[in-house]
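Re: beginner question about structure tokens

> Can someone show what the tokenized structure looks like for a real chain? I only ever see the sequence side.

Sure, here's an example I had lying around. Input first:
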Amino acid sequence: MRQIRALRIAAVAAGIALMATGCGATSKSSTGTESTGAAKPISGLQIMVPNTPGGGYDTTARAAAKVLDNEKIASNTEVFNLAGAGGTVGLARVVNEKGNGDLAMLMGLGVVGASYTNKSESKLTQTTPLARLIEEPGAIMVSKDSPYKTIDDLVKAWKADPASISVGGGSSPGGPDHLLPMQLAGAVGIDATKVNFVSYDGGGDLLPAILGNKLGFAASGAGEYLEQIKSGEVRVLATSGEKRLDGVDAPTLKESNIDLVFTNWRGVVAPPGISDEDKKSLIAAFEKMHESAGWKEALKTHSWTDAFITGDEFQTFLTDQDKRVADVLTKLGLA
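And the corresponding structure tokens:
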């Protein structure tokens, strides 16, 4: 973990806020179709998660793999984790696997920011965009033993002594778990230079810190902590979407008279240079997954918002996100 205390971080949060409010493995013919024209299930697909097990990327990847296999869109889909440097270790692996139509990576806004703040030579614009899958609001969370029972309790204590309250997030600077608390600080009148932000490499690493009451509060997507939220081990003080999250008994920030709405997104990319046939096969597989009853149930179960786009549309979106992040971080000397 590393502690971030700098005025320029506040500017990063403010600048990137504007953008915060998607198998080439086949049964190798190479993807294709039976002689009758019916599409075969893809096989041998590996979905890489670029951070630790238990986080948002991991949860999304495993939900997608389960639906792909259960709906017989794919068979024997494998999910594996390759954590490090805010997701950029995994990003480098994908970029270096040029032409590998059997590999995909689950990613999101956090990897976009980390690719610059970690000085990664690999960029998401080098990958093959497949599909944006979901978006979700953030959640302000504490352990069951926290003295803060409401968002008002937290804000009052935070404003009184910002540096004394550590704020945990499962992303690097420029990522969603970092942007949310920085924007929250600005919304409630706290000087960002006094915010004590602690970065963890994904929600899987962040969760023990929450449960162990090692943080004043955490900011992350609620979907990856639903089990602990439902059991009462984690208390949600507020969520950052326009509407309340189903199944989460907590107000929105807006309801709490805090003028802030923030959402994150996640999607899937493949290595550069995959064949047109593999690209079409992979996109078609995710399109079928998106239309399935199993995926609709996964969206409901994890309180995710459907934000599905594919191919060229996702590429345009990803290029825009990358440019916005790069421009802001470059101006601030962080890229």
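Each token stands for a local structural state, so reading them left to right follows the chain. The chain is about 40% helix and 20% strand.
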